[in-house]
Design brief:
phage-related protein like fold; 3-stranded antiparallel sheet; alpha+beta; elongated
Length: 298
């Protein structure tokens, strides 16, 4: 039987919804692959659209025979070109009435988030980002969707060792599933020389795997775009070049007829798998063997 108390129904007009002081941000994958690859060509592209990277092979050595004329070395070298052809952007317009009446600074919040969106796109998009590269590399090991084992990690290392890739600058870039497969290997978790703890803010693993730093990101699973599958990387720094001719840049303009502030954040860039001359004396065909793909789970 009702006893006529003042409960939530009769007092509804006095029980307002209270909005949180801060918005709930979307989850963000770790970005950082751009810091591991070769960015050295950016300084050469203050202007222009195409950068040509000439190869230089190791000269051939010949044995001199007594009383005969020597042979001049004369090799026609090749080059790799990278065309800066991609411009990615985020754009939005916030009307004045929203700026005035909203509790939140949406223009600032979306501008900050756009920087992440652009870098996540450059690193992780399956067609216009660096995630598209490893499925095309000559060297690959493991099986898509299956935990890599110690033999797979060693095979990646052996590929780069055989290609004379310097140890300095080597890195692993792997999906969470691949990193967790590594942690299942007993010797990695028992030795202080191997990865043990993840740095959540950067995705970088504390410690090294066979002498190379490890970075974890869910963006590695964007290629091949199949649930539970991912392409990880084991690369030398020179194996992939990224050129951001324009870094992430904010442009703002007041649009009169929209009665609001338009914001566009963009970047101009391209990337490429590097093809590099092998050690062969006298030169050979340039190849992409500074890189190895590690197939595994997402």
């Amino acid at each position: 039987m009702a006893i006529n108390t003042i409960g939530v129904t009769p007092a509804a007009n006095f029980l307002p919804s209270v909005w949180a002081n801060e918005v709930s941000d979307a989850a963000q994958a770790t970005t950082g692959l751009a810091t591991l690859v070769d960015r050295s060509y950016e300084d050469s592209l203050k202007f222009g659209r195409v950068i040509a990277i000439p190869d230089r092979s190791n000269p051939a050595v010949r044995i001199k025979t007594e009383d005969t004329t020597g042979t001049w070395s004369n090799r026609t070298e090749t080059q790799q070109t990278i065309t800066i052809s991609r411009q990615a952007y985020v754009a939005f317009l916030v009307e004045d009435i929203v700026d005035v009446q909203s509790k939140y600074d949406l223009r600032a919040d979306y501008t900050d988030a756009a920087g992440y969106s652009l870098m996540a796109f450059i690193e992780g998009d399956a067609t216009s980002g660096m995630a598209s590269l490893p499925s095309g590399w000559t060297n690959a090991t493991g099986t898509l969707g299956v935990d890599p084992g110690d033999d797979d990690f060693i095979a990646c290392k052996n590929f780069l060792d055989q290609a004379d890739v310097p140890m300095a600058g080597r890195f692993w870039y792997m999906s969470p599933g691949e990193v967790n497969a590594m942690f299942k290997i007993d010797k990695f978790v028992r030795s202080g020389d191997y990865p043990e703890v993840a740095n959540i803010s950067t995705g970088e693993i504390v410690g090294k795997l066979y002498g190379a730093k490890v970075m974890q990101s869910t963006l590695a699973a964007n290629n091949p775009g199949v649930a539970g599958q991912a392409y990880g990387w084991y690369c030398g720094k020179r194996g992939v070049a990224l050129i951001q001719q324009r870094k992430v840049t904010v442009h703002e303009q007041y649009i009169l007829l929209e009665v609001g502030q338009g914001v566009l954040i963009d970047t101009i860039y391209n990337f490429a798998t590097r093809v590099i001359q092998p050690k062969t004396l006298g030169g050979a065909t340039s190849d992409n063997k500074f890189n190895s793909a590690l197939k595994g789970p997402a």
